[in-house]
Design goal:
Length: 890
């Protein structure tokens, strides 16, 4: 906890470390009421910093350390006493006498009471660690910064009976028993690494074992460790791991480098997973999956997260970050890598649609709020607050744009050079860009503004057709709103992938004025100036532009399409993503019209063209069912909020619900036909994990949710049949969600009770049960959530539970959370205050919805601010919560 205001740390103050640690030898003694950590650090003066030493002597050694009880300290085998060092809350300072020395320390720590889940802690009965970003300093005194890379050898000792499995990074080198029922194991990691990649696990775990033969024919043992009751939920993760390993060899030429690769599933984890060298630790929600307990979406998330963490072995571990401002160096790049992997394993277009919908709803909102920051931030108080959508998702978009600009081959040349040049180093985003430039002979100076300027750029496009000259001109005007600390922005490099459609919907061959000949019908142009025009020649009739295909840049594009043009694009655009996007734009226009009607107190009147467009989709059996499902999904309330100047929560909810009802009523027949056909196949084949079946189930469940709007008894019967008679969680949970959102009170209560009874011992399934109810937009949402907080399966100590109930309520149940009397805000603030003391990282993340107060009407603004102020005044705040609250109120 903080006693004074946390310090702001600036990128511009970066200095290389004064000392380096060549070897780190750790011994852990794990006990039930404390643990001991012995560290032997083989250290030397950093030659880079040694220039002035001859005159000035050696600088002090300042080690990081928090919540450690120092029991013994010696330098070169000389015991040190309190007079030889200074100790405060977060540092141990001492004076080396020689440029090389060995430091030995012993500290006592308390994993058994560590609820922050950072450093060494207990999750249930097992010990585990989480060291990124600055958790290692809670384990021992150290230079806890990513540019200090060391070779680690780790010995773990523990009671054999309770902790038969003892793991750490690298390869196992020795093990044995001790008297008194204890045993030990030693692990050695041959690769130098920063402390944030350190990991240790001790527990009673079972594992599934497999192997992988690398591109150079080396055999790697693969092991996934779980608590015994989960051993039947590991195969999907193992399959995903093997696919990831092969894909990284094929697409990036990257081979795995140790003899063993391990994954451990833990129930209490702040994030999704962690890429510790050779020993990935996963939130169990991102590794466990089987058809009966995990939805299709959950299976896909497991596949993506397994890949993400595996890919970090090169983009993050072999080449790591110099400092935490460079976080996107590893995260943006690795998200891009995992997104491309998922695109290759599943439907590329659907993956892109999902990612863009998420980016637009959530990252764009972050970039427009008080915590907005560049992909490479230039200051922070608490680094844990910067594991953000901007660093991850926008960072990935930035890498995607480089890929778009250089092409797949040029990009690969760039990554080859990057890995070759920087293997074993801790580097910067500039180094990444430099490798791209050098490998391709290009200048990315202006492009780098994507790393330093925050905010979502606007790109307004207008057209001019000259029939006499047969030219068609697109004029672009870019701008970027001010963000905290950045009033003025310079123009970005915006790659715009586009096509021009003729009256039949075909892409016209494209030739820009001045070019010798026409190319294909799809190309990328770079908008680099504040205002810039591009003229296409040989255009006989006025075309319809398809702009920013695949969202080729993370910007907000506007073009004055009318609804008929959007319907045309929905049907004809050769780019699947833009067909979806045209549908979204049509829906947005229609919904915004309804929002206006609601605000003026007029009767709601839905533009029938939306229904026509949806009917066309349902009637065309040749379309990919996954695409149909995506296109039938209306923009979420959260997205409608993001694009509103002032969000009218009630009007948005009313407009969207009205539209859903109209769709259910008007398109009842075709929806029912699709539902019945697809459900019949589900019954016939049972659960099949393949893409076509996933698509079919998605469409089936969307159809069911619309059909249920009718309130018809037949639909209720179908829903109950699906709920009871299916063999998988995808169908069961969808049916449950549809029931929960319906007015069939008795059936709803029975289904919820029956589900909870059956799955009460499976925490991940219970998370889904909480979420479905937390997200229900019917009146009384807050009271339902408050009651669920008392449920025996709920605990504030488990981050997944907090996210499933409190997080789902505040982020997905907007009408209830934003209740006009502010009770939703009070509820959230109360729990943030409690969580602040238990788990600061989780507390600060849950705060996000309150930070968006500027989006709402005056009354709500005041209520939200009042809660932020109440949190600020509530006592000792963690740096995590303090930073977010104080920046939100600034
Ligand atoms: N590097 C991990 C994310 C991660 C970050 C912080 C954590 O603890 C506070 C845990 C995981 C990843 O990108 O997957
Ligand atoms: Zn990552």
């Amino acid at each position: 906890m903080r006693t004074e205001q946390p310090k702001v740390i600036y990128l511009k103050d970066y200095q290389a470390p004064e000392y380096l640690i060549d070897e780190t030898n750790l011994t852990f003694e794990l006990y039930e009421d404390h643990s001991l950590v012995h560290a032997q650090l083989v250290m030397r003066r950093n030659p880079e910093r040694a220039a002035g030493d001859a005159g000035a002597g050696l600088p002090p050694l300042v080690l990081d350390g928090q919540q450690l009880e120092l029991l013994a300290l010696s330098m070169d085998d000389q015991a040190l006493t309190a007079a030889d060092y200074q100790l405060d809350d977060s540092h141990l300072t001492l004076q080396p006498k020689a440029a090389t020395f060995t430091l030995d320390s012993t500290v006592r720590i308390h994993p058994e009471t560590n609820t922050a889940l950072e450093g060494l802690y207990k999750s249930g009965k097992m010990f585990c660690t989480q060291c990124e970003a600055e958790g290692f300093r809670k384990i021992t005194y150290y230079l806890d910064r990513p540019d200090v890379m060391s070779k680690f050898t780790t010995t773990v000792t523990a009671e054999q009976h309770r902790y038969p499995v003892l793991l750490s990074n690298g390869n196992p080198v020795a093990s044995g028993s001790e008297e008194g029922g204890r045993h030990w194991a030693t692990w050695q990691d041959p690769f130098k690494k920063p402390a944030y990649l350190f990991a240790l696990v001790a527990g009673d775990l079972w594992c599934v074992e497999d192997s992988f033969t690398t591109m150079t024919a080396r055999d790697v043992a693969l092991r996934i460790y779980v608590e015994p009751e989960n051993i039947d939920k590991v195969q999907h993760a193992m399959d995903s791991l093997k696919k990831s390993m092969r894909w990284d060899e094929e697409v990036y030429g990257r081979e795995y480098d140790l003899d063993i690769f391990m994954i451990v599933a833990v129930n209490d984890f702040n994030m999704g997973a962690m890429e510790n060298k050779g020993l990935n630790i996963f939130n169990s929600s991102c590794v466990l999956a089987k058809a009966e307990t995990a939805t299709d979406a959950a299976h896909q998330r497991v596949e993506a997260v397994v890949a993400h963490e595996y890919f970090h072995n090169w983009s993050g571990n072999r080449v790591t970050c110099r400092d935490w401002f460079q976080l996107s160096l590893k995260e943006g790049f690795t998200v891009f890598r995992d997104a491309e992997f998922s695109a290759d394993m599943n439907s590329r277009t659907v993956k892109r649609i999902e990612d863009v919908a998420f980016l637009r709803t959530n990252q764009f909102a972050e970039d427009a709020g008080p915590m907005a920051h560049p992909v490479r931030p230039d200051s922070f108080m608490e680094i844990s607050n910067f594991y953000t959508l901007t660093v991850y998702e926008k960072g990935s978009e930035v890498v995607r744009m480089i890929h778009t600009l250089l092409g797949a081959e040029g990009f690969r040349k760039g990554t080859d050079l990057y890995f070759e040049r920087h293997d074993g180093q801790a580097v910067t985003c500039d180094d990444f860009i430099k490798a791209m430039e050098d490998a391709n002979g290009v200048d990315l100076t202006q492009f780098k503004r994507w790393y330093s300027q925050a905010g979502t750029p606007r790109l307004a496009v207008t057209e001019a057709f000259d029939p006499a000259a047969r030219t068609y001109t697109l004029s672009f005007r870019q701008s970027c709103p001010a963000t905290p600390g950045q009033a003025e922005k310079l123009p970005f490099v915006i790659p715009v992938e586009l096509g021009l459609l003729d009256a039949a919907g075909n892409d016209l061959p494209l030739r820009l004025a001045g070019e010798a000949q026409a190319g294909g019908g799809n190309r990328v142009i770079s908008v680099t100036e504040a205002e810039q025009s591009f003229t296409f020649v040989d255009i006989a009739e006025k075309p319809l532009p398809s702009l920013l295909r695949g969202l080729s840049a993370p910007v907000k594009l506007s073009f004055p399409y009318d609804r008929d043009q959007l319907m045309f694009l929905m049907q004809h655009d050769s780019d699947g993503f833009n067909r979806w996007d045209a549908g979204q734009q049509l829906s947005v226009q229609v919904l915004q019209e309804l929002i206006g009607q609601h605000q003026r107190g007029e009767p709601l009147q839905l533009d029938p063209r939306l229904l026509t467009a949806f009917r066309t989709l349902l009637d065309d059996e040749s379309l990919d069912q996954a695409m149909v499902a995506e296109m039938l999904s209306l923009p979420s309330e959260a997205y409608l909020t993001e694009i509103s100047e002032v969000a009218d929560v009630d009007a948005i909810h009313a407009a969207r619900e009205f539209t859903r009802q109209s769709i259910g009523a008007t398109l009842f027949e075709p929806l029912l036909a699709r539902y019945q056909a697809n459900r019949a196949i589900s019954r016939e084949t049972g659960y099949v994990a393949e893409a076509a079946h996933i698509a079919r189930r998605t469409l089936q469940n969307i159809a069911l949710s619309y059909l249920m709007q009718s309130g018809k008894a037949d639909v209720l019967a179908a829903c109950l049949e699906q709920f009871k008679d299916c063999d998988n969680m995808t169908e069961r949970l969808s049916a449950l969600a549809v029931l929960v959102n319906s007015g069939f009170e008795q059936e709803k209560a029975e289904a919820l009770a029956c589900f909870a009874d059956y799955f009460k011992d499976d925490p991940l399934v219970m998370d889904q049960w909480f979420s479905v109810q937390a997200g229900c937009g019917l009146p009384g949402g807050l009271e339902r959530v408050q009651a669920l907080m008392e449920h025996p399966a709920f605990t504030l100590k488990n981050p997944n539970k907090v996210r499933a109930l409190i997080g789902a309520f505040a982020n997905q149940n907007l009408v209830n959370f934003h209740r006009a009397d502010g009770a939703g805000y009070r509820f959230l603030a109360d729990h943030v205050i409690t969580l602040n003391a238990l788990n600061p990282q989780i507390a600060s993340r849950q705060l996000a919805p309150l930070t968006r107060w500027r989006k709402y009407d005056d009354g709500r603004q005041q209520l939200m601010r009042a809660e932020l102020e109440r949190i600020l005044a509530s006592g000792e705040l963690s740096s995590d919560v303090f930073e977010v609250v104080s920046k939100s109120l600034a």
